[in-house]
Amino acid sequence: DSLRECLRGFFGEKNSALVELTGRFFGDFNIREKLGEHNGIEIYRARQMSDQRQVTLHVLSIEKSADPACRAAFWENANAKKRLRHRRVLDVEEVGEAEDRPYFSSEFLGDTTLEKLLSNGARIDSAQAYQILGLVAEVFAHAEKENISLEPLTPGAVCQPQWSMSDKIVWQTG
After folding, report:
1. Is 2 left (phi over 0), alpha (psi -120 to 50) or beta?
2. pTM for the full predicted model
3. Which residue of 41, 69, 108, 164 has the fewest CB atoms within a 10 Å radius of its CB?
């Protein structure tokens, strides 16, 4: 709840104070492509140099990084995600800070989300909808059992098996 309160009103807004990370190094990461931005969190496809693997990198914006409450909420959320280990959720591999900005990384699965599919005109039939709801319910039940609080799920945070060639669903935003 604290992250949602801290970042309220930033959905879809562009932050003119952002320093473009694409095409440069950010800590141990070579930033390849910006995938999006949500609630003051920038999302990138990057290569982690120490492990030579492709990751999804979530970085708190410069503006939000300057706010102690936002930083604290980001850290709390990132560490909760790191504790959430489930076969349907991409593991948060690393939580850290570079250039005075907190970040977390996870395996890169792709950027084809339920939101993108729906915005491109795809239709979800009732069987697919029940399958998606079942996967999401499975993850939320596990999180509750482990006493891990998850932020609300949006269509932009869900990758589903037939779209991504994986059996995982993803919380892609911060």
Report:
1. alpha
2. 0.75
3. 69
What are 164's two structure tokens? Answer: 């991504």
Token reading at 114: 């339920």
3-class secondary structure, 18: coil
Q: Which two tokens stand for residue 115?
A: 């939101």
pLDDT tens for the chain, residues 1 to 174 = 455 445 444 433 444 344 689 999 999 999 999 988 888 899 999 999 999 999 999 999 999 999 999 999 999 989 988 988 888 888 899 999 999 999 999 888 776 777 778 888 888 888 888 888 888 888 889 888 988 887 777 777 776 555 554 556 555 444
Instruction: Order the strands of the 101-107 sheet from edge to edge.
Output: 25-26, 29-38, 41-48, 53-60, 101-107, 92-98
3-state secondary structure of 84: coil
